[in-house]
């Protein structure tokens, strides 16, 4: 009679564990892909103009697109299309005042008030004598702003208001994306929990089945010695623990872990990723850049034209907070700094070593790099922290992977031609233009 033998089920457990682990990793990767949307260079800048242009006549699309960016960078902090903020709502402004008058007003409102212009004085008095800043914008730029305002005002009531990009239920598009990412994250967590529970149930079930089969086989009288030996076999854990191969494996793993942690510790010296100091005033980027969608360049005025992005001065804060939440305890700190003629002692978060040269304008203005590429989801931060490593390797990897925009620039024509001849199919990156040479950053 053929003998019954128990098949070991450890390999089944291993297969199940590996399967569930792989499923969990795939789900986590999908979630990471969702949560990083909107950080791609150029994505933020391109979305709003496309929406504005889509609702305007084809001939005005370029002007409206330019006006969209100018409005958000200069006007959105104090004006909305249909709502009164610091200044009046701008819907129908072209019917209230002629365009030449509006151009003069934007370029030098204080001069018009001082000249006694009836409408200028009326607006000045109506809005608590709040002086509008003068803007060094050309006539064409101001015209494009009001073209954008007119296009936005002509949209249906349930469309975007105040020039903001709105998603479902009137929420800013960034909030919709964050909500979708959060929902996907919850879904992945639920799936992983269910898979873990199923794995535990399967393991327990297999153990129970194995014990039942062992008890059944023990009761059989037709088993030979080999079958009995297999049924009654026990694991000698002490023998395993005392064996040379086990001690050697544990010792090797211990040495590798210590060596790995030591190298990681040495590599992390001077690395400030995650640094999040407390600031003297509780300023929320989530509120200003996120909810109110204030353009970064409004406060950091040199972000597109200087080596470094400057710290905003107190008078920029007062452009809004002379009227908005003027009695807030945090805003009163700004008033005290102005009264004492002392700068606010902001704590610097991002700081490169003096041996490395970095030009902010070269990356933002020339390269078209978005703020989030290096600073992370700044629009979601209550307190700013250093998002990226900012190490030399991090910079070099970016230079190796980032294509260089050479279209319409004759300076690169010959370089691109030589590059394509020598590297067929490879993109012309910053590194291809010498962006990884030592002297580019160290000289």
Automatic annotation (TrEMBL):
Q: Which PROSITE patterns match?
A: CYTC
Query: What residue stretches are annotated with the Cytochrome c domain?
Result: 62-153
Q: Does the keyword Chaperone apply?
A: no
Q: InterPro entries from the entry?
A: Cyt_c-like_dom, Cyt_c-like_dom_sf, Cyt_c7-like, Multihaem_cyt_sf
Q: What are the entry keywords?
A: Heme, Iron, Membrane, Metal-binding, Signal, Transmembrane, Transmembrane helix
Give the transmembrane region(s): 190-213
UniProt GO MF annotations? electron transfer activity; heme binding; metal ion binding
Per the UniProt entry, the signal peptide is: 1-28
Put simply, this protein is called Cytochrome C
Provenance organism? Hymenobacter oligotrophus
